[in-house]
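User: My instructor asked us to take a sequence, write out its structure as tokens, and then describe one feature of it. I'm not sure where to start. Here is the sequence I was given:
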Amino acid sequence: MKRWTIITLTLVLFFAVAGIFVEAQAPKTDGADTSARVITDDEVNAVAKQLYCPVCENTPLDVCPTQACKDWRELIRQQLSDGWTEQQIKDYFVANFGPRVLANPPNKGFTSLVWLLPFAALLAGGAFLWRLLRQWQIQHRTNADTIETTEAPPEIPPSLLEQIEKDVKAQF
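Assistant: Let's start with the prediction itself. The structure tokens for your sequence are:
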């Protein structure tokens, strides 16, 4: 837990310092620049929704409440206002934090299993269910045929029944 706190604080400090340098290098305007576009929260969240928090486990960046994620959303806002595309922003996060930050992993290499395994499991489950139902149907049909073709047990002759009764009475 202490390690994650240190990592988070380091990243927040890094982005804060990087923001100062970026601001210092930005061209100075006298306020007459009307070409700067205001980026809405919806635009930021549209990109952040496609990314997962690099620090928190399984938390989308658009809903993560940590300060680091707030800073990353501000970074996305700044990148969008600088003219970056969604793909460039995602590439930036992948370059800094690895492909695990992507909500939809790329369909290549080992991560292609993420896309293929659900379909394979669905097909295997369907085949298993089909075979089970088929086997049950054959067994049910065989049992029905056996019941219909079974003959009644042979009748015991009355003289034999009388002999059995006498033997039983003699025993007691």
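For the description part of your assignment, you could build on this observation: Residues 28-34 have pLDDT under 50 and may be disordered. Try explaining in your own words what that tells you about the chain.
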